[in-house]
Specification:
126 residues, alpha/beta, Trna Endonuclease, Chain: A, domain 1, 6-stranded mixed β-sheet, 4 helices, globular
């Protein structure tokens, strides 16, 4: 952000850029936590354009998928994407996900009726 001379005022004028920076920050945090758990952070994108921001996979093959959204109002979009992705996974080969979650910039953590968790970024590592 320093290289971009990104002041808070400038970032608020370009929410798209702010969203990309926020996503990069969350991915960095997930990598730190994953490394401590002997896990890795991957990304997914297929030929239909479906993508998942982060998939954390442990050494024993367990995995969880995460969408990263700056605003909590985007949790529905993230959850829909995760559910669509989870339907495409061959669970006979990869197993069922340990978790599907949307990481948001603020708010409260909860589990939606469809089973997707909504996690505020401040709760990571807690």
């Amino acid at each position: 952000m320093a290289a971009l001379r990104a002041t808070p005022e400038r970032l608020l004028q370009d929410l798209n850029l702010l969203g990309f920076l926020y996503e990069a920050l969350v991915i960095r945090d997930l990598r730190v936590y994953a490394r401590a758990a002997d896990a890795q952070v991957l990304q997914y994108r297929d030929n239909t354009g479906l993508e998942v921001d982060a998939i954390v996979e442990t050494a024993d093959g367990r995995w969880a998928a995460f969408e990263i959204k700056l605003g909590s109002g985007m949790a529905d979009e993230g959850a829909a994407n995760l559910l669509k992705f989870s339907q495409r996974v061959d669970v006979a080969k990869r197993g069922k996900p340990s978790a599907l979650a949307v990481i948001v910039g603020s708010g409260y953590g909860y589990v939606r009726p469809d089973g997707v968790a909504v996690i505020p970024v401040g709760a990571l590592g807690a």
